[in-house]
């Protein structure tokens, strides 16, 4: 009963959040992974251009022109697909499009039959349909997971685990806010696979074998590296030599059902093989071009514990599941062996990807599909500590806090106060549980250095000011300046660096430098990664030992301190920040360099760059 109430509560929270965030309004036009999954459908059923996508991309350009590039031959190109010979091949496999398709057809029928919206694949009904697909698949996965948990754990434990995973992890974010991503759909398929596997070995019925084959095939179709999910159908409830022999015997006596599983598994992959064959000439085609894995240098520590989309950093409630792994083999043998094999391999693979922090989301998104696997060690953890009142009370209090924290940080993300793909501990610390942005938190986001309380520092002296008072450089601007007669107009390059050796009088290791300047933007640079920065670089024997950049455009007229603010044009803004000298900043070999770097052609004007020395109040 408690787990049923928990599920009903989850449904209410999900749909309330879905309509609160309103992300369904136009997310398909924006590009990114969801568009890449979705493009198969309008290309095949509306524009009949699956071979080159020119009409499909052209329609997207009408809604979001900046997301589409036009090549010299007027050929339209996008990030989510690559030109190959005379075709354009979608980077992503078509599994998610297959799962989208019933909702796409419903939206298309609605648009065609009512004429209330244009039936072009991009209007509001299509966005709502794919948004609903996301939330419904997520709820389906949670419903299946509840059925499986309830077989082996108490109703109370099942309710706690269900609530923890549904609202206490980034499954919530990707179900109600960041819509259309593959991980929610994979979560549902993982839950289906585990449930069908358990049912199959309890009954040996063919219908469950069919479900296993379809689920595993679809998982592999969506993300081929997740083929290791096959460990669970083969090793579920195998935990000793005797149970391994029994499994071999089951396979040999029910070989027809296993052949059926394999056949359905392959049938699920067939649409992708055919797509690649028609467009590339080969059944197997690597559509990610230069993107790939570096298995010798995985970023496991950063991926699990870092603050650039680190898994446990943004989903701390799953620490309970990690602890529960140590008790899994004694308390839930069914999933122990496949879990101990699957999880290390999976973690190694996903954090060997070139973009190991997996931009475009909140926390480590490829871990989401594995949450049905983590549900068992989490349930074991709560079962074990349930025997100790003190630990149980503390753990339940932490569950409530982590659920609140997850929902609050989801709100922070949507409010522009949190951007986890490029975050760091200094920013996380400055921004923790803050409902309003702050200048210091924004500086910490850029510089990766926590800003000190200036009330606990004292000003010592101004070390150097760069006012650009002569006109020997072609970059000097005599028309727009903060202090006459000139300012420095910068395009794709750096200003002359101010250099402060460590043996400058009065400067010691661990002192603070306050670095400041005035900035003016004739035009805006919307690309967050191409915006100009004022940088403090500490160098030892010519080698960089510390780098502290602060973006300039984002600080101009940004009272709410939105992290992705593009700035305002034609107005001056004063920008300052503190950096602490490293321990080794001691002699003439150690130099602080301060300069403005603009990586793009979009100009920026700076004036009065200043470095001042501050010390802690004794």
Describe this structure in words.
With 618 residues, this protein is α+β, with helices and mostly antiparallel strands. It has two domains: 2-30 and 123-282 and 290-403, no CATH class; 452-616, Galactose-binding domain-like (Jelly Rolls, Sandwich), CATH 2.60.120.260. It is built from 21 helices and 15 strands. The chain has helices at residues 2-21, 33-38, 40-45, 54-63, 95-114, 124-152, 155-168, 171-176, 182-203, 206-222, 231-235, 241-253, 255-280, 300-305, 311-314, 319-331, 333-350, 371-385, 389-414, 425-431, 439-447; strands spanning 69-70, 76-77, 81-84, 87-90, 457-466, 476-477, 487-490, 493-494, 498-501, 512-520, 533-540, 543-551, 573-580, 590-598, 604-616. The strands form four sheets. Strands 5, 6, 7, 10, 13 and 15 form a six-stranded antiparallel beta sheet that branches. Strands 8, 9, 11, 12 and 14 form a five-stranded antiparallel beta sheet that branches. A two-stranded antiparallel ribbon has the order 1-2. Helix 7 (155-168) packs across helix 18 (371-385). The longest helix is centred in the N-terminal third of the chain and has 29 residues, at 124-152. The chain starts with a helix and ends with a strand. The relative contact order is 0.08. The mean pLDDT is 93.
């Amino acid at each position: 009963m408690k787990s049923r109430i928990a599920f009903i509560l989850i449904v209410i929270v999900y749909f309330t959040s879905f309509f609160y965030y309103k992300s369904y309004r136009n997310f398909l036009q924006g590009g990114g992974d969801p568009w890449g999954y979705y493009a198969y459908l309008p290309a095949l059923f509306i524009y009949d251009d699956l071979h080159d996508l020119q009409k499909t991309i052209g329609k997207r350009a009408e809604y979001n022109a900046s997301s589409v590039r036009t090549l010299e031959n007027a050929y339209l190109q996008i990030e989510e697909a690559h030109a190959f010979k005379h075709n354009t091949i979608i980077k992503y496999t078509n599994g998610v499009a297959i799962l989208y398709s019933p909702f796409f057809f419903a939206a298309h029928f609605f648009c065609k039959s009512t004429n209330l919206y244009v039936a072009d694949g991009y209007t509001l009904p299509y966005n709502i349909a794919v948004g609903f697909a996301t939330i419904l698949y997520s709820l389906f996965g949670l419903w299946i997971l509840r059925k499986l948990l309830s077989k082996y754990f108490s109703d109370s434990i099942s309710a706690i685990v269900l609530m923890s995973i549904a609202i206490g992890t980034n499954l919530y974010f990707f179900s109600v806010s960041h819509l259309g991503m593959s991980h929610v759909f994979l979560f549902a398929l993982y839950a289906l696979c585990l449930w069908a596997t358990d049912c199959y070995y309890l009954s040996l019925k063919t219908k469950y074998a069919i479900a296993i084959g379809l689920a595993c095939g679809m998982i592999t179709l969506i993300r081929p590296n997740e083929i290791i999910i096959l460990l669970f159908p083969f090793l579920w409830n195998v935990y000793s030599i005797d149970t391994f022999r029994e499994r071999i015997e089951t396979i040999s006596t029910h070989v027809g059902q296993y052949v059926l599983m394999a056949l359905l598994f392959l049938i699920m992959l067939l649409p992708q093989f055919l797509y690649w064959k028609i467009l590339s000439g080969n059944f197997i085609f690597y559509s990610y071009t230069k993107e790939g894995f570096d298995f010798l240098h995985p970023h496991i520590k950063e991926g699990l514990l870092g603050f650039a989309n680190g898994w446990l950093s943004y989903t701390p409630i799953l620490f309970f599941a990690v602890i529960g792994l140590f008790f899994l083999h004694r308390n839930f043998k069914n999933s122990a062996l496949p879990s101990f094999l699957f999880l290390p391999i999976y973690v190694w693979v996903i954090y060997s990807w070139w973009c190991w922090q997996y931009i475009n989301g909140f926390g480590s998104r490829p871990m989401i599909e594995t949450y049905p696997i983590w549900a068992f060690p989490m349930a074991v953890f709560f079962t074990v500590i349930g025997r100790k009142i003190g630990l149980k009370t503390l753990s339940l209090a932490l569950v409530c806090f982590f659920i609140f924290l997850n929902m609050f940080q989801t709100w922070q993300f949507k409010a522009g106060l949190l951007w986890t793909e490029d975050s760091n501990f200094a920013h996380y610390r400055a921004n923790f549980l803050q409902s309003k942005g702050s200048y210091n938190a924004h500086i910490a986001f850029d510089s990766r250095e926590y800003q000190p309380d200036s009330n606990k520092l004292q000003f010592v002296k101004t070390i150097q000011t760069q006012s650009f008072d002569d006109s020997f450089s072609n970059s000097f601007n005599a028309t727009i300046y903060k202090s006459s007669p000139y300012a420095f107009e910068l395009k794709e390059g750096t200003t002359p660096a101010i250099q402060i050796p460590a043996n400058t009088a009065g400067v010691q290791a661990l002192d603070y430098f306050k670095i400041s300047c005035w900035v003016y933007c004739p035009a805006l640079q919307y690309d967050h990664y191409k915006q100009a920065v004022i940088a403090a670089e500490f160098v030892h024997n010519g080698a960089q030992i510390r780098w502290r950049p602060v973006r300039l455009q984002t600080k101009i007229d940004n009272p709410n301190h939105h992290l992705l603010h593009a700035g305002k044009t034609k107005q001056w803004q004063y920008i300052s920040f503190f950096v602490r000298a490293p321990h080794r900043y001691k002699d003439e070999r150690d130099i602080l360099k301060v300069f403005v770097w603009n990586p793009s052609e979009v100009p920026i004007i700076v004036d009065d760059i200043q470095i001042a020395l501050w010390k802690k109040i004794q």
